[in-house]
Amino acid sequence: LSHFSMQKINGTEVTQNDMIMAERLFGILAHVASSELPQYRLISILGDVRKKQFRYLLETKGKKPGLVNEENSDSKRLVGENTNRATLNYTTRDFYNERLEEIKEKKKFCKMYMEDLVKEATEINMKNEALQKLWPQMFIELVRDAVIEIRNKNSYMKLCLHQITDQ
């Protein structure tokens, strides 16, 4: 159980020899625990390990090449220990059910959100199509109204001057 990084047990300091003996005695425990884990738990543990490996790779990307190999072996050892530690953590059925409920709620929220987005996009598209159909007639009417308005130059200039003085 060296992956728990225990320094003392019941006031007695843990030696390297104690760790080796414990690994010989209890080494199979992590294997048995991982083989008995439910699928969902195993997937979540492996997902966490992958995230940590990716984070570690990003952190060591800019370092010297000689150091990366030494740190890479340390990283693999730490990742293995973290996997073993996570494997030995016990999760209750209630926690699992709560997690499932949380996932269901998130799925429901995402589905409703996507439906709202699709509905809004559909409405925008329908409005755009309606504008494309009406625009030619609207443009003709705007041009016609502008021509009628400025046909009589003197009355148009008086109207503009009146609008300016009102402002």
UniProtKB/TrEMBL annotation:
<protein>
    <submittedName>
        <fullName>Leucine rich repeat containing 49</fullName>
    </submittedName>
</protein>
